[in-house]
Amino acid sequence: MAVINITEKSEFENTVSSNDLVVVHFYADWAAQCGPMNEVLEELVKQEEFENVKFAKCPAEDLPEVSLKYDVSSVPTFLLLRNGKLVDRVDGANAAELTKKISVQVNTFVFRDVVTSLNIGFQIPKSRTVDFDDDFFFVQISKIPIVIPPKPPKEDLNTRLHKLINADPVMLFMKGTAVQPRCGFSKSMIALLDSLEAQYKTFDILNDEEIRQGLKTYSNWPTYPQLYINGELIGGLDIVKEMHANGELEALLPKKQSLEARLKSLTHQSECMVFMKGNRNEPRCGFSRQLMAILAETGIKFDTFDILTDEEVRQGLKTFSNWPTYPQVYVKGELIGGLDIIKELKESGELLNTLKGQS
């Protein structure tokens, strides 16, 4: 069985509707790590224990609706699906983790050498043992190494908790999200905050067991939800209800801006604002990467906003600006356009004056 090459949304939907386990690699040609992981996929499809698994690859940027639906914000990303439902995923170039998760899904726990013959003209002997490590994957073929770089060092848990607690003036750690609370207490907390028109952010503890357990110790508070204001623990639902009843809560909560007011403020945040996937140092798509290169050549000062961190802004700005794609460039709060417009302005010699607001 060969790796399926998906190029259309309908192909994706038909492929993942299978009763069999389907593994889909979301890749981009410009991402260096995707090539070696495609080769790993080619080897996995040959493994006898995975004979009932379908393997496919999909260009993430060519199928934005699918990428958005499954929260694919970086490449490589691997989705494991059965009957059209997501059962697991692997974010990043981690062959070991991918193989383990596939094995779990097919009810086998045999962890074998899956890279036995990479299709570049060299062979690894069958007897060769290839070590897979969660933090580093290295295969030596003859004298040519193929290296998938290790993940960045894991951040200390307390440091991570401190950053999360202070990520917004009002942070709510809960089960689920503001749109879809996953327990009655969390639902009641959201209803209370919304009734006060409070501006707040949430963190879904069900998506991160380390945070879920670690925050109990960090804050010395054993249950959820937990509400923090300016980095300080306020308490759970009962305490927040008491503070509301006593008239103490509302004064502590910043009022929610309308989406339109927030978008207007963001587009005026700098003389030149770029809304993109990632940031200037780490663009997260090919279009954003190209735009950063062009803007760097101009020497113009600009700020960026990572739309992958705020779904409300990501969707709202499309309507606000009547421009459906990203990146988007604004000068003095006015939309200039996306990458194609910037390229046209560069070719016509108008780009610098436009970015200075002199057009």
UniProtKB/TrEMBL annotation:
Keyword Iron: yes
Domain Thioredoxin: start-end pairs: 1-107
Coiled coil: none
The organism's place on the tree of life at top rank: Eukaryota
Residue intervals passing through the bilayer: none
Keywords of this entry: Iron, Iron-sulfur, Metal-binding
InterPro entries: Glutaredoxin, GRX_PICOT-like, Monothiol_GRX-rel, Thioredoxin-like_sf, Thioredoxin_domain
Keyword Oxidoreductase: no
Protein name (record): Thioredoxin domain-containing protein
Organism of derivation: Periplaneta americana (American cockroach)
Lineage, opening ranks: Eukaryota, Metazoa, Ecdysozoa, Arthropoda, Hexapoda
